[in-house]
Amino acid sequence: MFKFSLSPGPPFEEFYVNQKLTLTVSPEDLSDLPKVIHVRIREMISNTMSFTMLVDILDRDDDISLTGTSTFFLKLFDRRFSKAFRDQVPWSTARERAFVKAATIGREGLDGFVFSICALENYREQTAQAWTVAQREACLAVDIADVYYDELSVYDALQDFQGQSIPRFVASLELDISPLGVDVPPRDPNAAFATFEPFIVKGILLERIEGFTLWDMPDRGVPRWQWQGLVDKARRMLDILDDNEILNMDVQPQNFIVAPLTDKPESTDDYKVYMIDFGMCRFREENESNLVWSVAKNTYNGDGRLFYWMNIRLEREGFVLRNDGFPGYRPWDPSLLDAM
Q1: Structural domain for 304, as ranges
Q2: Does one domain contain both 115 and 161?
Q3: Which residues of 92-118 are buried (b: 16+ CB within 10 A; e: fewer)?
């Protein structure tokens, strides 16, 4: 029987508050952080496509660093625990055992499979029914890596807006989840798909934003007369994506953070709104026609979608949103997504 051991403890089987993680700065990252950093999880934030948590960077004595800002948002793109990818098939040690075996002693075959799903048109649709457990895990690894690289690309493209309209990007990181007791093949930078790294969890370290989501605004003490203005602020921020030919296919109120600038905000000017979560974004392709691009924008309709959900949310409080100042507004039709 093929034998291996998961690490004696987390993070290789779960994440939890007060857990310490050792992270490596990605080779391509140009940040000023040390190449290896240690963090402690302070708070679990969410788990959709990525596992988002609030972490403290530790010093050499495993104490919270007292020099400068030490608390950050950490997003880990981990195929094992991503709810958005795993709602049908939960992770288990049995599945991991099959994946580890294929990714080590059967690595050549798994690399060939990854090449096929990435390079061959319609390969997934034509072969998915016959995939093994290991192949399904490999596909998840590829898909969640794509989400990571998409988000990384957006932060790179929007550098001028970091710290103003989106969080400040700090570093790209890696968490090694290699199993014990097996020889893990080294990375081959010349491989056809060198980004397939079965035992590396990619991560993004971001500036911590103190605030609450736009969706939670009515429950956070914001006066009713400020609700319209804050929703309008969020809607206008979508112009940043449009101006940079970025399409966000998952605009929702939970992806906007409202940050009070004072202890007692008196107007919407006393709040800053940030956009977060860009894993479901794509850029306009080089030869994409105006027609195709317009159809895509109309289908996902970020402004209409945000207005749709916030109107539902605020109607529960007896408040109706207006569309003043948005002459290009188009109602969002959810059925367009169902038809895709």
Answers
A1: 212-338
A2: yes
A3: eeebbbbbbbbbbebbeebbebbeebb
